[in-house]
Amino acid sequence: MFFSKRFVTAMAVMNTFAWQVVAQESQTTEKKAETPLQKVWNRLSIGGYGEAVMTRNFYSDHFSRYKFPESYADDDSHGRFDLPHVVINLGYDFGRGWKMGMEIEFEHGGTETAVEMDPDEAGEYEAETEKGGEVALEQFWIEKEFLPTVVLRAGEIVVPVGATNAHHLPTQFFTVYRPEGESTILPCTWHQVGISLYGRTPSWGYEVQFLSGLDSDRFGAECFVHYGATSSYEFKIANKYAAALRVDNYSVPGLRLSVSAYAGRSFRNSLMHAGESYKDVEGALKIGSFDFALRKGGVIARGNFDWAHLSDSKKINVFNNHYPTHTSQDGQPSKHQPVGSDAMIVGGEVGYNFFSNSARFVEEGRQLILFGRYEHYNSMQEGDSKVAYAWVKKDRFALGVNYYPMREVVVKAEYSKRLLDNPYNDEPSVSLGIAYSGWFK
């Protein structure tokens, strides 16, 4: 009996050892058999996200509806189909901590132009815009990981100030379009060429960035600093500089608490030279933001609060208003609109996943979420033109549903309404959308 037990034990040990040898030999054989093409393929990452949307707006789309609201109170509704964002992500792991990443984005379906011979113009060749939209390289960076808590990245990077910039995938918010307040007032998705230092522990995440400043000649009344990060030139002007910071805390399971901030100068970050009367103008822009996300059982809640202050807004308005507008300057960037000295955004959404009690649905990533969202935002919380541009202050609520047949795909539907102060007309709408987000490889 003793011998039998010893024999069985020995055979088990030998069998385990034999399988380990076979597995090691198999791995060695596979490693040796890996071709250069397979090696490249195994280090390559491919992903992306995309949205298709249909909206019916039950209010006037006339450009003077805020200037003469009583004249357009009974206008017909109007509808739109759109592809807000379609994105391809590519990544490559070079090894030894070196990685590359890029994001190519087609906004509103991209852009199309064509050259045609016009028979009505004596056979002249004409270039015509076939379709509006934009194609942009929103991210391109190379990074080196020294430790999981110390990673250095340089290139075109996302500036994670505010909730939407840090979490802008269509599976990271309930509404059909991105949350309206932050995407109207702040650059969104905010991306610039710069240098970033970031890292992550189980309970904390951080990112610090060095960037070029925004361009104050692109600021406007409703958009505030939204277009300040863009450039119509073949380069981004960097006469002025800025810094951004984000800190995330994950100490409580299911809860993320985040703060982010931005500080930089924006005046004279332009090809247009300012005179001696503007020598003390800085256009210092400061943004502070808090946001959170909670997932507990079937409850999902998110919220944000943002405040921005722009110094010297009065003199910036005078400068922008005198920006040249004659024919030879048709491409000039100024909107010739006043910009406020302060802007404010507050928003929150809560939803309940009715599939959260099914273990199988949770495993498959299936969800059925009913949600509500409320936002208040004002691009002229303070400023000289606060009264004249009172319509930029908006409240918006949305009620809707998200259905996830799987983790990467979501179908969205919502009813929303913008609420404006008298004498302006409220703006209700109904939207339907389908989106995906994920990595294919």
Structure, described:
- It is a single chain.
- With 441 residues, the protein is mainly β.
- It is globular and about 70 Å long.
- A hairpin with a 7-residue loop joins strand 18 and strand 19.
- The termini are far apart.
- It contains six helices and 19 strands.
- 30% of the residues are buried.
- Residues 1-23 have low confidence and may be disordered.
- Strands 1-3-4-7-8-9-10-11-12-13-14-15-16-17-18-19 form a 16-stranded antiparallel barrel.
Give a quick set of tags describing it.
441 residues; mainly beta; 16-stranded antiparallel β-barrel; two-stranded antiparallel ribbon; 15% helix; globular; disordered N terminus
C-alpha end-to-end distance: 54 Å
Radius of gyration: 27 Å
Spans of 5+ residues with little confidence (pLDDT < 50)? 1-23
Major β-sheet annotation: 16 strands, antiparallel, barrel
Strand tally is 19
Bulk shape: globular
State the share of residues found in helices, binned by percent.
10-25%
Order of helices and strands: HHEEEEEEEEHHEEEEEEHEHEEEE
Determine the structural class based on helices, strands and strand pairing. mainly beta
Mean pLDDT: 89
Q: Note the total helix count.
A: 6
